[in-house]
Amino acid sequence: MLFRQLEYFVAVARERHFARAAEACYVSQPALSAAIVRLERELSVTLINRGHNFEGLTPEGERLVAWAKRILAEHDAFKAEAVAMKSGVAGTLRLGAGPTASTTAGLPVSAFCSLHPLARVKVCSRLASPELRRQLRDFELDAAIAHFGQADHDGLEVVPLYEERYVLLVSGDRLAPGTSKITWAEAARLPLALLEPDMRFREFIDSAFRSCGVTATPQVETDSVASLYAHVATGTWASVVPHTWLRAIPATEGTRAIRLIDPDSTAQISVAIRAGAPASVAARSFLNVAAGLMLSEVFEPDSMSAITA
Questions:
Q1: pLDDT digits (tens, 9 = 90+) for 57-83
Q2: Count of CB atoms within 10 A of residue 40's CB?
Q3: How confident is the model at residue 87 (pLDDT cuts 50, 70, 90)?
Q4: Which residues have C-beta within 8 Å of that of residue 89, sequence separation ≥ 6?
Q5: What's the whole-number mean pLDDT along residues 45-53?
Q6: With 0-12 CB in 10 A as exposed, 13-18 as middle and 19+ as buried, what is 1?
Q7: 291 in helix, strand or coil?
Q8: Which helix (H) or strand (E) holds 62?
Q9: Which of 10, 148, 157, 189 has the smallest C-beta neighbourhood within 10 Å, fewest atoms?
Q10: pLDDT interval class at 211 (50, 70, 90)
């Protein structure tokens, strides 16, 4: 059995299409198909249901794809560790970031790259929390920064980084000058632009509204941080955002961040990697770097008062 055969098989399982899998592996389709046939003969099982097109994996194929992902991840981890022992951490760290953490991930990424100049980082920042967890467990991501509840810890090593607090972002004359605080109930009466309902951050926002007996019905919903800011800048809508966003995207002239109270809600942001072996050298290093930055102090409200004022 060759690693190349397993790579081709995993690609077919992922793409669910022979031609796309071959393209992803930079080989011809006949070469890919022949390699998988040899793998089936070696194992004496049928791995793929074939008709005119790919028709899914057999039960044996479903079992093998899980093992193949793990074997390939262990192989990559061993190669990365060998390189790291010789010249330091190299290769590409695949980092997932929840939408609200995407504006703060630059700090640990910067520290990681400064410590490991040969390493590269690929950041995926538009993944919902369930997909982040799946990709971590399926060896498709090395690390992730996002909201991880206690129920999300199975199979993952999770380290808290900082707590998000919420502010209302407004512009124009939507609120009286000098307003420094607003209740969630009052904010619910404003025309709102919010992140989409399936995002974990939106769940926290909706929970905060419900806790004071109101339901917010946004006129605009989006999956983009930049889009929220653009809508607020028109003066038509307000939005609820984490206070940490204001460090990366400060409120511009005419736009204000106002503290939300009653209740004073918070949400934990953590960094996670797969628990146990295979342990990616880059993933472990990134987790250690992120945890060592003391981001809870960096994002303390008092330390950001000049930004949010």
A1: 888 888 888 888 878 777 776 666 656
A2: 18
A3: low
A4: 80, 83, 115, 116, 118, 119, 281, 282, 285
A5: 82
A6: exposed
A7: helix
A8: helix 59-87
A9: 189
A10: very high
Domains with residue ranges and CATH for the chain: 3-80 (1.10.10.10), 89-161+267-299 (3.40.190.10), 164-266 (3.40.190.290)
Dump the DSSP string for 131-166.
Answer: HHHHHHHTTS-SEEEE---GGG-TTEEEEEEEEEEE
Q: Which residue has the higher pLDDT, 301 or 219?
A: 219
Region of 27 on the Ramachandran plot (φ > 0 left; ψ -120 to 50 alpha; else beta): beta
What is the DSSP secondary-structure string of 65-132?
Answer: HHHHHHHHHHHHHHHHHHHHHHH-S-EEEEEEE-TTTTTTTHHHHHHHHHH-TTEEEEEE----HHHH
The three-class DSSP label of residue 187 is helix
What pTM did the predictor assign? 0.70
